[in-house]
Write a structure and sequence with these properties.
- The protein is α+β, with helices and mostly antiparallel strands and 82 residues long.
- It has a domain of 49 residues.
- 27% of the residues lie in helices and 16% in strands.
- It has 1 helix and 3 strands.
- It has a 3-stranded antiparallel β-sheet with strand order 1-2-3, covered by helices on one side.
- Strand 1 and strand 2 form a beta hairpin.
- The longest helix is centred in the middle third of the chain and has 22 residues.
- It is flat, with a radius of gyration of 16 Å.
- It starts with 12 loop residues before the first strand and ends in a 21-residue tail after the last helix.
Amino acid sequence: MTKFAPYENEADVVEVGNLMLENRLDRITISGDVDLTADKEGLARARLLHDLLGRIVAGLEAKDLPDRMPPPDVRTVDNPFG
C-alpha cells in the first residue's frame, strides 16, 4: 500500500480522492471528502482507507494514552506583509 507511519513524523500526507490525512506526532488530521463509488476505483479507495485507519488504530493501541490531549498551542504573530 502507501507509506504512512502514524504519529511518527510531521511529514506524511496521504490523499484518497479529495480526502487528506496529515500525519503529526500527536494527531492525525483528516480533511476533505471522498466518494466510495460502487466500482473498482471505489473499492481501491475503500481498501486504502481501511488500511490507513487500521494503521492509525494500531498506532494508538500501542501507546500509553492520556484521557484527553491538550489543545494545540496556537500563537498569533505579526503580519510580516502589513
